[in-house]
């Protein structure tokens, strides 16, 4: 879905932003979750706003990645369409599709992870990040503890006593040799355990894949969604009485797509067995390296991703802005659409408006 500004409702603002916006939905959602805000956001940015269904969700084709994968003998292997990296590359593709150098990425819940990963994949293509009820585990930032002077003195005394030992002492030589031997043995054991861990991990992935892809595994997934799907939707709202039949139909319509259950299994497997993420440093360690403008929006009554996680996340990302909407659950863009758009507008005006004013002052 693509929305484009049809009128100059925000003429002063559109000239300052001039970036398209890409909306990334969360787990179990689709472009439907952005219906209430796409057109207003297009007016705010004065450009195109694009949303797309991620594989396994919405009305996307539910392909079997095993049947469509390339042979192992080839130099390149087909990227799993249900992996996070596929969604990241799709996001970057749509920036090209919009013929833009940069875009504002808006991720909701699990879509926030795709937005952040897309930034780290190509930071020069991301103008700003807007994370809505982000399902990103925020790191615990512990306060630095300063040691007492007395403790430091004890350590100095202990170190000086070791340094003053006579190196010609045969007892110390034996201890040194035993220490080195123990070190070598320990390193060998650790190396062996790591090798066994890799083998066990490989066996675990194969066993997990076999179980989930079996008829029993697919049946279990289908039973879980049928039993808890609608209650989960209602639970995502602060006031479940506001969840209309139209909203329920919008979320359950994708369950009529052929192969939705098997695709959900493949998505789950892709998340649990993601090997690409293990090649990178943990996300918690990279959050502090985000340098583009970041806005985090959350509801004060979010029962799926608690507000305190968003608060910790904002502290982990330097210079980020945090907005907490009152009487709101996990879906601010649906439950509090007008307030959500207003928050986004103020953030973009604060970030890009200030930059434009500074540019005008420099020119004059």
From TrEMBL:
| Superkingdom in the source lineage | Eukaryota
Molecular function terms, GO-annotated: hydrolase activity
**Any one GO cellular component localisation term in the record:** chloroplast envelope
One Pfam family of this chain = Abhydrolase_6
Please report the stretch or stretches of sequence annotated as the AB hydrolase-1 domain. 22-341
Which PANTHER family does this one have? ALPHA_BETA-HYDROLASES SUPERFAMILY PROTEIN, HYDROLASE
What name does the UniProt record give this protein?
Answer: AB hydrolase-1 domain-containing protein
Mind giving the lineage of the organism this protein is from? Answer: Eukaryota, Viridiplantae, Streptophyta, Embryophyta, Tracheophyta
């Amino acid at each position: 879905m693509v929305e484009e500004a049809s009128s100059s409702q925000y003429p002063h603002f559109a000239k300052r932003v001039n970036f398209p916006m890409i909306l990334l939905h969360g787990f179990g959602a689709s472009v439907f979750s952005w219906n209430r805000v796409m057109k207003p956001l297009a007016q705010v940015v004065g450009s195109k706003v694009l949303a797309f269904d991620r594989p396994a969700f919405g009305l996307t084709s539910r392909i079997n990645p095993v049947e469509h994968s390339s042979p192992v003998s080839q130099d390149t292997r087909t990227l799993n369409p249900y992996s996070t990296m596929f969604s990241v590359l799709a996001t970057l593709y749509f920036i090209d599709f919009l013929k833009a150098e940069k875009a504002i990425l808006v991720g909701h819940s699990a879509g926030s992870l795709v937005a952040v990963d897309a930034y780290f994949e190509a930071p020069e293509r991301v103008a700003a990040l807007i994370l809505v009820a982000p399902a990103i585990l925020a790191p615990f930032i512990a306060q630095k503890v300063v040691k007492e002077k007395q403790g430091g003195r004890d350590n100095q005394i202990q170190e000086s006593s070791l340094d003053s030992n006579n190196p010609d002492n045969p007892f110390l030589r034996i201890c040194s040799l035993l220490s080195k031997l123990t070190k070598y043995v320990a390193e060998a054991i650790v190396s062996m355990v790591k090798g066994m861990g890799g083998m066990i991990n490989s066996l675990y992935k194969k066993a997990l894949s076999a179980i989930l892809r079996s008829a029993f595994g697919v049946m279990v997934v289908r039973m879980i969604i049928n039993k808890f799907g609608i209650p989960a939707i209602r639970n995502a709202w602060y006031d479940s009485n506001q969840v209309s039949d139209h909203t329920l139909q919008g979320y359950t319509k994708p369950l009529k797509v052929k192969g939705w259950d098997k695709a959900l299994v493949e998505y789950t497997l892709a998340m649990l067995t993601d090997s690409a993420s293990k090649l990178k440093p943990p996300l918690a360690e990279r959050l502090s390296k985000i340098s583009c403008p970041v806005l985090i929006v959350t509801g004060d009554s979010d029962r799926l991703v608690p507000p305190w996680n968003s608060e910790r996340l904002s502290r982990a990302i330097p210079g980020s802005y945090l907005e907490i909407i009152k009487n709101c659950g996990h879906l601010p863009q649906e439950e509090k659409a007008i307030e959500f758009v207003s928050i986004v507008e103020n953030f973009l005006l604060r970030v890009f408006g200030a930059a434009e004013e500074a540019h005008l002052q420099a020119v004059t």
